[in-house]
Amino acid sequence: MKLISQIAELEKYIEHHCEINLKVSSAPVGWHIEHSLMVVSGITYHILKSNPKDYKWQFSLSKTIIFLTRKIPRGKSKAPSLVNPKEYSLDAIQDILIKGKASAEKYHSMDKDQFFLHPNFGNLKSKDALKLLEIHTEHHLSIIQDILMKNLCVL
User: Fold this and answer.
1) 2-148 is a CATH 1.20.120 domain
2) Would you state the pLDDT for residue 88?
3) Which of the chain's termini has less CB crowding within 10 Å, N or C?
4) Which residues of the chain have pLDDT under 70?
5) Is residue 123 a contact partner of residue 58, using CB atoms and an 8 Å limit?
6) 146: number of Cβ within 10 Å
């Protein structure tokens, strides 16, 4: 599963958790790692608690665009406070890494009709939620890679 390999890639960047590049992001690498893992764990938790009978389909143009392009535009939205690390640390990153890995493994056993209510995209069944997690994690991996580039030229 792509999400599991993405989490392994996030783990490789932990040693750079304090690095920051203000040309790319006001947050350091550690914030992006912790945020990504908090999102994985949070969405998984809500899907597992959901009742498939409560699912209602909703159209979302922004979801359609993001799912088709597999890209999230940078700087266009803010992380909800629930998944916005306040005081990130190496210990906090290590703890959420364990939870993130365990959460990703749970997608193998989820009911296909379980869902998550996204604040902008509406209800997402587990398959679409997994797709969103992969897109979201890739978004933050890209930001991390750009932060770590030493000679970044921003026009």
Assistant:
1) yes
2) 76
3) C
4) 150-155
5) yes
6) 15
**Helix axis angle, 126-148 to 61-69, nearest 10°:** 60
Rounded Cα distance between 69 and 60, Å, is 14
Residue with tokens 């750079």: 16
- For the chain, the 3-state helix, strand and coil shares in percent, each to the nearest 5, are 60, 5, 35
CB 115 within 8 A of CB 126: yes
- pLDDT, position 80: 83
Give the three-state DSSP class for 58: coil
CB 147 within 8 A of CB 19: yes
Burial of 140 (0-12, 13-18, 19+ CB in 10 A): buried
- The one-letter code for the residue type at 6 is Q
Could you state, in order of their start, the residue ranges of all structural domains in the chain? Answer: 2-148
Q: What is the pLDDT of residue 38?
A: 96
Predicted pLDDT of residue 150: 66
Q: What is the pLDDT of residue 155?
A: 41
Q: Tell me if the pTM is above 0.90.
A: yes
